[in-house]
Amino acid sequence: MLHLENGTKIGAYQIKRFIKDGLFNGNYQVADEAGNLFFMKLFDWEAVPQRLRVGDTVTEIVNSRRINHPNVVSYVADGGVSFQDKAYPVLLMQYFQGSLLSEYLQEGRVFTSSEARALIIPILQGLVYLEQSCDLNHNDITPRNILLETASGATYVPKLIDLGHAHATLSGDPPFPLTDLNLLYAAPETFQGVFSPESDAFSIASVLYTMLCGTVPWNLSIDPTDPYEDRKARVSEARKRIPVWPVAIHSADPALRNVILTGLRLDPAQRPTPERMLEMLTGKAVDVQQKAATTSDSGKKAPADGLKATTDSTSLKKTLQRGGVGGGFADVAGMDDLKKMLTERVIWVLRDKAKAQKYRLTPPNGMLLYGPPGCGKTYFAEKFAEESRFNYMVVNGSDLGSTYIHGTQGKIAALFQEAAAKAPTVLCFDEFDSFVPSRGSEAARHRPEEVNEFLSQLNNCAKRGIFVIGTTNRMDMIDPAVLRKGRLDLLIEVPAPEHETRRLMFAHHLKGRPLANDIDLARLADLTEGYASSDIAFIANDAALVAALADEAISQRHLEDAIRCNPSSLGKKSARTPIGYK
To answer: Domain spanning 98-282: which CATH class is it, in words?
Structure first.
């Protein structure tokens, strides 16, 4: 491949530096006369396969002309040049300044559930845009092709990059080479040349798994220098094993966990599409057909203004809901002392304003529920909102995620203003550590203003009729200023459920299912010492599934087998009696 020297002129652009070689292109950083930076691909026309040519240009260039979305790398211009009597089609793209997701992962970064949500939702928006508006699948989604672009100030915008394999749905003999694909993230059907939206969904689930767990699914590694067929055989063989679901997956929020579990199914017919994944994570499909405001008459993006900061495309779409749907505290097994305290110290004071004013009573501003993952903190918070019958909102990382992480303090203020206007209101922030990380930590390095805005809004919010609930399994990562009196007054540990609570949980999760007459709830509680609340719900459902497949009532044997096959997600050794097959 031709390598151009720094300073070489190509039309109105000058080569600043060589970046890397592709299979049949060279990649460069270039600048225009005003010094604005762009990304240039220089294609070796003789090396481009015939099936990747469209007239006198390259398929990737034709595809790029149609793409205009804030979460997909932006087209600027294209053309052609000649060097040493050889033709070189040229593609000019927005130059992205930031870090690749792969760079964070190589440094050992493990993402929280809310962080993974906030990053993957914009990527899904871009991916659905490609599929719906451009009839393209990306076909090469890996951490190397997800960029966290630096935009204005210290903000970031996730972007899909590298459209070299983008194509409409394919079934066998794809026009692009397969040997440079990262097989650890590629769907199994792509090994036979089948590419579809469901294939991209598999790759998205694989990326999410890696972000949460620090390793690829099936915990597999391959040498990229090995022959392609050898790599393919090794990955295919590994995927015959039942995948391992680490604690990080079990502790992810239900929607994110479901996206990963269903997205990694080997049969594409059983996977969600990226559009469905987006619906699962946001509650509804987002309008992805966004057009840029500045285009030339030919539809090409005008490069005159150079690299522009891209604003966040995700806004907070939840609104306050009225409590009362659901059973409230009646649905919560155990935790009687906590339920009684909150009823007397919070709910009653907020409900009876006259008496509260007479006795000059002020309820707590809020509480932090902390403890190991999967032990019912978020569930309890939602049931508190139901019990109170107040307006409420459960805010996940993705709801404020892209807005909050990308620095829009006004959105935080607007949320509290709406809550005050409709007081009494319960605001529940799931995985609260992701909203207010300690300002001395790396997590808060780029967003101290957002943390400060949260601190300001938390000050004496009870006087505005707002009760804040935060849930976390990493209280050590929360800024200490949040935990002082006058902000979150109550710090309440929610540990793994004790024996009686586990017994009640099994009764709750088995209620309404066809049961055999040998169910021993006390023994089930004995066998699940050290289990999380979410583990018990999973065990009940797992036993029900096995019984349903056999078309029989759920028995003690089904439940004990499910316990044996599903150890505690908290990683604690159980004191239970070993269970074996009879």
So the answer is: mainly alpha
